[in-house]
Amino acid sequence: xxxxxxxxxxxxxxxxxxxxxxxxxxxxxxxxxxxxxxxxxxxxxxxxxxxxxxxxxxxxxxxxxxxxxxxxxxxxxxxxxxxxxxxxxxxxxxxxxxxxxxxxxxxxxxxxxxxxxxxxxxxxxxxxxxxxxxxxxxxxxxxxxxxxxxxxxxxxxxxxxxxxxxxxxxxxxxxxxxxxxxxxxxxxxxxxxxxxxxxxxxxxxxxxxxxxxxxxxxxxxxxxxxxxxxxxxxxxxxxxxxxxxxxxxxxxxxxxxxxxxxxxxxxxxxxxxxxxxxxxxxxxxxxxxxxxxxxxxxxxxxxxxxxxxxxxxxxxxxxxxxxx
Length: 324
Hints:
By secondary structure, the protein is α+β, with helices and mostly antiparallel strands. It has two domains: 9-37 and 70-138 and 206-316, Bira Bifunctional Protein, Domain 2 (BirA Bifunctional Protein, domain 2); 140-205, no CATH class. The protein is 36% helix and 23% strand. The chain has ten helices and eleven strands. β9 and β10 (242-249) form a beta hairpin. It is globular and about 50 Å long. The mean pLDDT is 95.
């Protein structure tokens, strides 16, 4: 019967244990747990993310509000206000996302460490993942590798220099017949397409992978690397081909942030996507001074999938979208 939960009661208990471990982890490190609004007046500009909107009957007129795809902007406003290191466990919402690894409503763990560089954040993320998997899955030694090295290792292509001819030849030689039609002349699209089909599925199993130094052409809120302007200080986490998290040495340059917002807004308009505006409150917070920090968001439902060996996200949710 579809009134019943999507997952077992045992999975509900496993989720509760997971949340308890996370809170204990950050309490020991004196990281403050916070809550921020999930319904806000602004939303991210990333053209790869769709969102939910709602109307608030705020006299004398209705106001459009957005369900947040991440608590990032509000958390950065707290950081700029002097909160110190913070974390949050909350729901996030992404429209049109449903499948083995996606539900339009999902649970995120997001945290920011003031004074941390990306390497320090990676160390802490590895400590947390190791603690969460202890007693459930025997992980092999963690692998850390740059995006550039991994991409070249698998494909022979240079991800930092785009050659349409070389990318098309690679696609044709590897059976990626739709690549040129789907990606066109867009470098970022080619990178996402090849990485998701050729690289991510072939990462060694039962291993935490930390892939760093992503090309600057891919959307992110990370700082440009001090030694190489073609990459940003970004890391992504993978286990068993599942992307678990995305972290940055956070951008705190208000002019650069506004420029990236404008670029993404233009990309949305070119693709006839819903119109959005820049989050002026975030920009004001950056203007006031976001402390040097690194932050990361991890999908907890996907962690539960791995811990329980569940083949789809529906199996770890109390009620998936089909039963909500």
